[in-house]
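User: Fold this, then the next.

Assistant: Folding the first:
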Amino acid sequence: HLQLVESGGGLVQPGGSLRLSCATSETTLDFRTMGWFRQAPGKEREGVSHISLSDGNTRYADSVKGRFTISRDNVKNTVYLQMNSLIPEDTADYYCAATIFDLTLAGPRPRDYDYWGQGTQVTVSS
């Protein structure tokens, strides 16, 4: 049974940092790309970043470029999202997702992903 399990969310002050983790359970599926998405209350889910598990190629939403960094550890089957210089507009539920396709020629789009975690909440507030 495939699972994507996010962790690392929480409450942080503006300007602070958080690191999200997404661990995958054992699976025979050959994931090529994993990504992070977020959904704020009353808004649609949007892509934040994604990474190729083969060559490490990455893409970021314009709103997080220079502040967020995605990385992967293929040995641990884990993808990370390091979030720095957080602002209140980053407040959302953050979701990890995976796909068997290599999608990093373009930015992350929720409709391209088949497997999703349950999400972790990030709140940026003073």
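Now the next one, as you asked:
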Amino acid sequence: QVQLVESGGGLVQAGGSLRLSCAASGRSFSRNAMGWFRQAPGKEREFVAAIHWSGGSTTYSDSVEGRFTISRDNAKNTLYLQMNSLESEDTAVYYCAARGGYYTGISSSADRYDYWGQGTQVTVSS
């Protein structure tokens, strides 16, 4: 059974940092583009960041550019999101996702992703 399991969420003060992890099991995603999305209460799910299967290319939403860093360790089948200078607007459930096809490009569109985790809550207090 393929699973993506996020961890590392929690409560943090504005200006603080958190590091999210997404551990994959059931198959290797070393040849798949992966990404992070988030959903705040009452809002639609939105793109946060994505990374090429090789790790050589990344893209970010304007709202997190310069504050968040996406990375991956293909040997560990794990995706990361380092979040710095957190703001109250970053409060949301964060989801990791993986594209199903091998060697496909990165995408900011949620419907391009085939595998999803259950999410981890990030709450930033102001």
